[in-house]
Amino acid sequence: MELTNDNIKTLSEYLRQTLSPELNIRRPAEQFLESVELSKNYALLLLHLVDKPEVELTIKIAGAVAFKNFIKRNWPVTEDGTNRIHLEDRELVKKLIVNLMLHSPEAIQKQLSDAVSIIGRYDFPNKWPDLISEMVEKFGTGDFHVINGILHTAHSLFKRYRHEFKSQELWTEIKFVLDKFAKPLTELFQATMNLATTHANNPDALKVIYSSLVIICKVFYSLNFQDDDEPGLLEKLKAQVCENVALYAQKYDEEFQPYLPNFVTAAWNLLISTGKQSKYDLVS
Question: Alpha-carbon distance 112 to 46, whole Å?
Fold first, then answer.
């Protein structure tokens, strides 16, 4: 299929028909889309359709759903090496999808974010090394629609680290992510916390800000979940908090005395809940 406006209009009409409650209209449209989905440029036509301002939102959403399902069915290369998507299409999809996802309405953003996660499951990081850099770049926009889109994508992409078996390949991938993502994520967390203070009396703003903080913490959790002998960010944070408390107890003994019992209790609870692995030595 050529990447033309006429073909985009054709897909748009068939997508409209797939929304029909009448089976004799809906099913032929679904069959047509199934018959052409392995054609070159099919995925790109769907992405361009989703990006067209003149296309109705309901059709765009249908296109985004169709794209996600197409990716889910066809992006994995089969065990016998069969590749159902043209290589050029694969590369162009990866170049287009992140920016398109981030400037799309929320209903479309969710579908494209899921598609990014599916592609990332198979291509990241070896076949998609620029993904993290492209995502981090968007943190600087200050637009929480964009930032939250990136965070939700990161969460979908990294949450598998919680469940995968340990391997050198997994450690290598997580280190790759941490090298590129840990510092920007920390800076984003700090900036977002500052915004929470600034907008303390604005409930609408706080709702957006705290939703961002929640997803940042979910990403943080995924990146620190795998057990390792080396202390992770969470262990370093706990250790640093303990050191800060000890400093105040030593330097400001009299002023700090009223708060000491609560801190001692908290520190004790932390110690008795800490494992025996060497990575916890910083805390204990």
Answer: 11
